Prior knowledge:
By secondary structure, this protein is an all-alpha fold. It has helices spanning 2-13, 17-35, 67-84, 87-100, 104-117, 121-137, 141-152, 158-174, 178-190, 199-211, 216-230, 234-242, 250-267, 270-278, 285-301, 305-318, 325-336; strands at 36-37, 61-62. The protein has 17 helices and two strands. The model has no long low-confidence stretch (mean pLDDT 90).
Amino acid sequence: SLAITVLKDLIARTNDQTIKKKAIFEISKIIEIQSLRTTVNELNIANFYFKSSLFNSDFINLDEDKSQDLEYSISIYDSLGINNNNIDAMLRLADLRYLVLGDLDGAMNTYNEILEKSRRRSQLFRASSRVIDINISKGDLEGARASINNAKAVDMSNNQRIELGLKEIQIYFYSCLYTEAKKLAKDLLTKTEMNHYLYNDILSFLHISLVFEGHNDAINLFSEAQFKLKQNKRTESIRILEQLSDYSDETIAALVNYQLSFLWYLHGDYAKSLVIAAQLDGDDIYSELALILMAEINEIALEDVVSAIEIYLKFINKFPRSIFYDEVRIHLRELAS
């Protein structure tokens, strides 16, 4: 890319070792980003609960054709971390080990090394936060609780307190302690500005709590399925959710089937995703999102723009009061032109 060419030229021209190291670091970041494939970000509108970390996996798919590029980035981060004690490089290395390679133990070791070496609060919090995530991904909720208590011992910003609070909600939810999770979420919401980047995550959890209220059998399965997602076990999560696909409560069944459709899309089985989405034909938010997901799969994944336009038009006609109406209408106009 042009950016890499410019940075390489800078490395060749300068004798300043600090500038060279920074340029090498930036080249590595660019190559890393180009080698990763985040399927969910390919969609323009459709998502599951605002991509909330409570109900979506953080793990990232690797574009196999660019695996060597990623190896290059990893080697650079490793070298900068070991030889230059570059904490930012170590953080990126740990993130790649955790979220892309699934090397939980290797990532945990790197984060713990950062906790020993760094003196910057932002770096310490990021490493502490990831240690909590890894414990959750390992299925060790007690370890995650202990990690949260350790993180609380350090002075934090308000943003960091909110982020940590959301992780506590996660742990309560995955532990089937719904009353505690709901109480904490309500308290956290009162302390969070509406424009905060985690406000919708908290609101999403409270909405889920409302949908499943009085349905303990259903929420236990739903919670287990979300916990499996956090452990990068999408297939197991799907199998659990399928037990709720014909649930007696229509709203719960619609919510679950929309998530199933979304997960099959992420899994690359577009046909199965479309079949499930097509069955959602009500007047609820999940039927709205299912239509949008069908349109976007046709447009982006299958490159069938004609079919996508037909589905977008169906959405426009069926849901004129939808919160997504204007966004879909504008996008449809762009496609038509």
